């Protein structure tokens, strides 16, 4: 076994790591893994039920069972090489996996209760440190309090970082870049322009665009403001398309206009039939839900591009039964959809002036708009639907993968969230599935992202968001 100077580590996996990512054992590259027997016991206790946690537990158990297939006790004690078990080129582990085969216990501070599973895990980690002084032993857990306790008693502890695509929220791409005012002067000599089906395109040669992504917005502010969207990145430059001006009243969408440049780009993405996935990140009051609903109603009722609008959001706690509220699935979800109902009221406020006209408008909206819970999305396929997923910051990457892979032909998915308002445990702004999706779909020709930073709700709301 390698010594500490080689950089090879022995990672002890907590139960919550296996639940968070059932395939986590394949993601530690050249390092070794240790699975305590109490982790297997806890997986066994959590395997029953139809919750998302129970499903993940069963997946993790299947992975571990496949690793142990045909292994003798001697082989388990020696450590099972992971490289010979990998069935896909996605994973390239070269370390070994060890399962606890003997009693491991080391004395803990008297203040730590001995009958608590977290503390038993710390005792095992200390015992492994004593048994393997030549190897760097590290506890991997999603439990922040357990990591703090481990650090205090001298056990190195880390979070599970495999699904962390950025180090901080500041690294998340904004989806828009403001260009200098001398941009055209600098690039006018090698500029090519053309029109296709009423759309204006420009080919700009240069190496200044490496950090930008396909479908990012470009803006030049001044007397002659200009807004465009990158449609293609080539070896010698980029191809951009002139953006439609949704700030103009003549381009209103279901009765509303963009109020700032970021909202303008958002509507360009939402109304573009060539964009299948739109992600919008921003604090409350920036218009994410209102813009999405307006674009969905316009394209579903007026343009007949989609057959139905499906609106869903996370009900915290996620994955549990939504309760014994009376009524249909839609009626059970109604208490969670206050933001939807508020925005619908804004959108159809001007459509009818008499009570009868307002009721008729509401009936039409209800016939096209369906509210669904995330609990029953598994196994479905959405055909020609406009799917809006709200509060996505509370979803893991695996949960969002489950939802995005439901998309069938001619379906558009819009994902909304605020990474600074995460309510679920074990997730933060850099491990949220929402951040994962934003990063993984950069430079995808049929996906677009925009971060909304300017609040448009009210001056009171904007001020509160800044100072509180």
Could you characterize the architecture of this molecule?
- This protein is of the alpha/beta class.
- The protein has 3 domains: 155 residues, Rossmann fold (3-Layer(aba) Sandwich); 73 residues, no CATH class; 214 residues, Rossmann fold (3-Layer(aba) Sandwich), CATH 3.40.50.
- Helices cover 32% and strands 19% of the residues.
- The strands form 3 sheets. The chain has a 6-stranded mixed beta sheet. The protein has a 6-stranded mixed beta sheet with strand order 7-10-11-12-9-8, covered by helices on one side.
- The longest helix has 17 residues.
- It starts with 8 loop residues before the first strand and ends with a helix.
Task: Describe how the helices and strands are arranged.
Elements: E1 9-13, H1 15-20, E2 32-35, H2 37-46, H3 52-68, H4 73-78, E3 80-81, E4 96-99, H5 117-131, E5 136-140, H6 144-153, E6 157-158, E7 176-178, H7 183-187, E8 191-196, E9 199-205, E10 217-220, E11 226-234, E12 237-242, H8 261-270, E13 277-282, H9 288-302, E14 308-313, H10 329-333, H11 338-347, H12 355-368, E15 369-371, E16 385-390, H13 397-404, E17 412-417, H14 433-440, E18 447-452, H15 459-467
Parallel strand pairs: 1-2, 1-5, 2-4, 5-6, 7-10, 13-17, 13-18, 14-15, 14-16, 16-17
Antiparallel strand pairs: 3-4, 8-9, 9-12, 10-11, 11-12
């Amino acid at each position: 076994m390698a010594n500490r100077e080689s950089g090879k580590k022995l990672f002890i996996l907590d139960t919550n790591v296996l639940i968070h990512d059932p395939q986590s054992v394949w993601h530690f590259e050249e390092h070794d893994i240790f699975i305590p027997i109490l982790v297997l016991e806890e997986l066994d206790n959590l395997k029953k039920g139809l919750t998302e946690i129970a499903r993940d537990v069963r997946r993790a158990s299947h992975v571990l069972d496949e690793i142990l297939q045909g292994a003798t006790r001697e082989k388990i004690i020696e450590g099972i090489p992971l490289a010979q078990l990998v069935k896909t080129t996605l994973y390239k582990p070269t370390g070994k996996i060890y399962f606890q085969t003997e009693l491991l216990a080391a004395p803990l501070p008297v203040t730590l209760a001995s009958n608590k599973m977290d503390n038993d895990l710390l005792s095992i980690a200390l015992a492994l440190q004593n048994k393997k002084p030549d190897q760097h032993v590290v506890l991997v857990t999603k439990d922040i309090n357990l990591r703090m306790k481990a650090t205090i008693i001298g056990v190195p502890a880390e979070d599970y970082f495999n699904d962390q695509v950025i180090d901080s929220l500041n690294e998340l791409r904004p989806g828009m870049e403001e260009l200098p005012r001398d941009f055209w002067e600098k690039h006018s000599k090698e500029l090519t322009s053309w029109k296709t089906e009423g759309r204006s395109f420009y080919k700009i040669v240069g190496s200044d665009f490496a950090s930008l992504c396909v479908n990012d917005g470009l803006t030049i502010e001044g007397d002659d403001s200009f807004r465009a969207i990158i449609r293609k990145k080539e070896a010698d430059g980029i191809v951009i398309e002139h953006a439609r001006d949704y700030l103009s009243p003549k381009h209103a969408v279901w009765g509303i206009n963009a109020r700032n440049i970021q909202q303008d780009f958002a509507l360009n993405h939402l109304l573009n039939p060539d964009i299948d996935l739109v992600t919008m990140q921003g604090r409350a009051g920036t218009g994410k839900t209102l813009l999405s609903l307006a674009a969905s109603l316009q394209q579903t009722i007026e343009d007949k591009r989609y057959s139905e609008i499906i609106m869903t959001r996370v009900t915290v706690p996620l994955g549990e039964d939504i309760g014994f509220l009376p009524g249909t699935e839609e009626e059970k979800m109604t208490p969670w959809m206050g933001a939807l109902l508020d925005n619908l009221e804004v959108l159809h406020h001007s459509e009818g002036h008499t009570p009868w006209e307002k009721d008729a408008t509401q009936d039409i909206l209800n016939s096209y708009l369906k509210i669904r819970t995330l609990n029953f999305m598994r196994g479905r396929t959405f055909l020609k639907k406009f799917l809006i997923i709200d509060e996505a910051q509370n979803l893991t990457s695996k949960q969002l993968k489950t939802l995005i892979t439901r998309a069938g032909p001619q379906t558009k998915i819009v994902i909304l969230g605020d990474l600074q308002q995460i309510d679920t445990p074990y997730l933060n702004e850099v491990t949220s599935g929402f951040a994962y999706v934003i990063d993984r779909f950069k430079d995808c020709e049929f996906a677009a992202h925009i971060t909304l930073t300017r609040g448009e709700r009210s001056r009171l709301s904007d001020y509160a968001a800044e100072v509180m």
